[in-house]
Amino acid sequence: MTVSRPRVSIYPTDYAHAAEAVERAFADYAPPLAGKTVLLKPNILGAVPPERAVNTHPSVVAGAIEAAERRGAARVMVGDNSGMRVYGSNEHAATVAGIRQVAGDRYVNLGASPVKVAVDSAFADRLAVSREVLECDVLVSLPKMKTHVATGITGAVKNTYGHLVGGEKTWLHRQAQGPANFAAAVLDVYQVRPPDLVVMDAVVAMEGQGPSGGRPRDVGRLLASTDAVALDTVMASMMGIEPRAVPYLRLAEAKGLGTARLDAIDVDGPFEVVPDFKAPGISMGFGTWVSRVATYLFVTQPQVRRGKCVKCGSCAKACPVEAITMTDQGPVIDYATCISCFCCHEMCRYEAMDLSRRMRLLQGLWR
Ligand code: SF4
Ligand code: SF4
Q: What residues line ligand 1, using a CB cutoff of 6 Å?
């Protein structure tokens, strides 16, 4: 019996021509859509405009709507569970991201109708997942190519973490502390409902301190596959990151969910490592004995940049262990409680939550 190799395609494009590239991706990979209910699941991390490269660009979402409807989909829905705790902000985030407008009446608030599903996980028996994720016929993931300070990268697999409704994400973060546990939790969620098709916005990616505090980086590509693990392996390789250094990719391979080896994937189109692409600069928790010693000696924790903080309180709302107290001076972090999940960094839209590595022995001596 021959086992087919996963395939990932790379389409050069810009946002002005994104719809054409998305159409090619659908032509190459989409299952039959006629008469089907299709959910398009972009990455809408928060209420941030398109030029910041935090969310999937609206032109990619618009292209996916056209491609699905051109194939006779009976119903197309567009939505995401934005942020970590704030259900009511889904629609606001989609509007600022420019996606609510292109979706029109296809927009659905994925936070409105959660369903508890049984999961095979070390961290939870059941998880609250959006009903539309479970009930759609075809799930099309539209992630963004980004770095991630907690998981190394965030792409097709991590985009499924947004299938969890609002506070369930912070709750699971609390249960699955540390890079290895969180990688396992991400895969537990992924396995609830893997996407049928992934079309990734890598036109303008995010490098550095992603998923929200990094810098936009022109890459000029759209990536597509039916295999989310293979697609993320290609994405990591384009970033210059060894895929097996990414905890969730290495674990996905160990669990038989896909390959984290670039040479095991058929890549169509112009593959190249983006020159000097900036990795997140945070330990991904594994690797050589040197990195294990470093992980033991040092801890990475958030620190407020007072000059940039506007005291919006989003970081405090996002913290799964309530380690942040809002005061007249802004957020104050209780480092003894902090679990280094970086949700506060992820949710700060003002680049006011820095991440710095400190000696464990000195933990608690800074504010
Ligand atoms: S650190 Fe960021 S998220 Fe927290 S209050 Fe300040 S601006 Fe808001
Ligand atoms: S302070 Fe920030 S990094 Fe620490 S637990 Fe809270 S959200 Fe996570």
A: 304, 309-315, 330-331, 347-348, 350, 352-353
